[in-house]
Amino acid sequence: MLKEIGVGASLAVATFLLASGYNITPVLLLFGIGLALWYLQSGPGVGVGRRFHVLGQGRGGPGVPGVSFGDIGGQEVAKRELLEALEFVTRADEVRALGIRPLRGILLTGPPGTGKTLLAKAAASYTGSVFLAASGSEFVEMYAGVGAQRVRQLFSTARTRATREKRGSAMVFIDEIEVLGGKRGKHTSHLEYDQTLNQLLVEMDGINPYDEVRLLVIGATNRADLLDPALLRPGRFDRVVQVNLPDREGRLHILRIHTKGKPLADDVDLDDIARDTFGFSGAHLENLVNEAAILAMRQGKGVIGPNEFRDAIDKVIMGERLDRRPSKADLERIAFHEVGHALASEVLRPGSVSMVTVTSRGRALGYTRQTQEEDLCLYTRDWLEDQLAVLLGGAVAEEIRFGSRSTGAANDFEQALDIARRLVSAGMSPLGVVNVDELPRQLYHETMSAIMKAQERRAREILESRDDVLAAASAVLLENEKIDGEELREMLQ
Fold first, then answer.
1. Which strands make up the sheet holding 130-135, listed edge to edge?
2. Predicted confidence (pLDDT) per residue in 338-353, tens digit
3. CA dist., res. 37 & res. 2, Å (int)
């Protein structure tokens, strides 16, 4: 009503001034600037605010699939810790009777693709809460005050929806929270970032356990080191839940979830695939199963076989197969290089080679895929030195066959230097326990060089004593473009 009155009065005044002979152009210009600023600063429905919208409602709500904890594999520790925190929501009466202050915030932190968003949705489904989601990047704009307004809007909408749907709890999920909650004082150009974070801190402090709607904030980030300390103190984000890469059992569980309902060949062994996918996240494993199904469809097969899974693993790790083919001379050098890696690995860690190929994928001209029987949390000096010898085996094999090395070993050397640095910094070098930063650079260089040369000599001894296998395996690799690990082990025997 007031808006209509204001518009009518403005038109009447403009008409009167125009009839009286006044030049109203400056007035119209100022009015237009004011209207544009109002349009940009407005909340939902107009201007910048139109690009900001919260998603989801609750169990079965539009835009949010019904995700349960049973649908998430490989994160048993994270699920257990999150379920414990959710007891404050599901057992609200007991919490109040004992005078416990419920948690206000839970921070999920871990590498990308490990299931942080799925865990937040499962938490909302488990508690039957209204679920609202937003990304940290949606809050910050170039216009002062917009981010703080959006934070207020998010929390207000959560309480309003919960009341309207007659639910006693609501969950606010903020993905990429490091954008919204980064350390203050870094952005000297303007204080919009700091104002937005300050508003989030105020809203979290205002969460009262005795409110009609119990509110829980869940944040997700893979850069917890960037967050402001005020956000992580008790009373705001009380719990920090680590969502790490799955171990072998976790990968097997995830594979079973994603292959459910898909036609698998009888000889597909998911346990072998789980062993071959060390370091894969849940997102990588979902993509692996999808790529294997696509390969089966391209080949006109009705089931997904082990060959499709093997090719899909290579594609996820290295990228799509390239059309360009190296020259005959380069291909022979690549074959000896990869077989050098494979022989050193198989001699030092029997059964570790899964496949060797000279098919170009991504930026790699060839590739040796290794597996390990169990996921390691700690690495011994022997294991690291063995890995050094394996990495240097490719360049050594080239030198044995062609008398020189090539630039194809550049990436191997980078990885080898990283391992040598780890040996020194962990006190596993001849220097013992040292502070690397205070170590004389010449001594540091000499120690690193000695470590590399020792393992290079070791790789040379392994390959020169098996020169016939090196030549035979390279010939087979050139002819077939790949060698299976079992075939390589038969040649060694």
1. 130-135, 169-175, 214-221, 105-109, 237-242
2. 999 999 999 998 888 8
3. 20
Pick 92 or 155 by higher pLDDT: 155
Please compute, for residue 430, the number of CA atoms within 13 A of its CA located in the half-sphere on the CB side. 11
pTM equals 0.71
Q: Two tokens at 358?
A: 């000279």
Host H or E run for residue 11: helix 2-19
Active-site annotation holder among 338, 346, 385, 398: 338
Tokens 């996921």 sit at which residue?
375
Tokens of 229: 């300390």
DSSP class of 117: H
Whether the CB-CB separation of 395 and 373 falls below 8 Å is answered with no
What does the alpha-carbon distance between residue 395 and residue 161 come to, in Å, rounded to a whole number?
A: 64
Please indicate whether residue 4 is annotated as part of the active site.
Answer: no
DSSP state of 262: S
Structure-block tokens of residue 458? 């070791």
pLDDT digits (tens, 9 = 90+) for 318-333: 777 666 677 888 888 9
pLDDT digit string, tens, across residues 391-432? 999 999 999 998 888 888 888 899 999 999 999 998 898 888
Give dist(CA 54, CA 362) in Å, integer: 38
Strand partners, 55: 133
Residue partners of 182: CB distance under 8 A and separation at least 6? 193, 197, 226, 227, 228
Q: Is the CB of residue 199 less than 8 Å from the CB of residue 151?
A: yes
Q: Say how far apart CA 109 and CA 102 lie, in whole Å.
A: 21
Give the span between the Cα atoms of 358 and 458, in whole angstroms: 25
φ and ψ at residue 237, rounded to 5 degrees: -90, 95
